[in-house]
Amino acid sequence: MNIAPDILIAAAELIALCKTNGEMITTAESCTGGLITGSLTAVDGSSSVVDCGFVTYSNEAKQGLIGVSEDMLVIHGAVSKPVAIAMAEGALSRAPLATLSVAVTGIAGPGGGSEQKPVGLVHLACAGNNRPTLHRRRVYDGDRHAVRKATIIEAFNMLAEMTDKKPV
After folding, report:
1. Predicted model pTM
2. Which of 6, 7, 67, 147 has the highest CB neighbour count under 10 A?
3. How far apart are CA 35 and CA 144, in angstroms?
4. Residue closest to 122 by CA, chosen among 141, 106, 145, 140
C-alpha cells in the first residue's frame, strides 16, 4: 500500500509519543475506511501502541460494533457531533487494551453532500480513559483523497493532544 510520506512521518511521531506515554490506540472509522489504522500499522513498532480498529462505514456497523444508538443516527445523522462522540466512546469501551480512541465520520465525496452537510464535512472525536472527549468539526477542500488525507492528519493531531492530557 502506498502511504504518503507525510502521513508515515506523522504516524511514526504519534507512535513514538504513545510509546513514551504508555498509550494504546483504537479507531472507529467511517469516511476513512480504515486508513487511519492502516497508516499507523505501516510503521515499525506500531503493535506496541495499536490495539484495534473498527471500520464502521454503515449505520448498522456503527450500532452493532461500537454501540451507537439507532435513535442518535436517526435524529442527528451519521455525520454529526453526537455520533462522532458516541463512536469514539463506544470504540474505547469495546477495545480490550486501548486507553485512547479516535473516531471519524464524514462526507468525503464526490457525492453525498447537502447544503447542511457539504462534501468535505468531517466530524472527529477523540476519547481517553478518565479524560474529557474532544470533538472537532472540519470542512475540507479538495477531492475525496484530499478530504481523507486531511482527516487522517487531524485524527493524529487529536490523539497527540489527548496523550498530553493523560491523567496522573
Report:
1. 0.96
2. 147
3. 13
4. 106
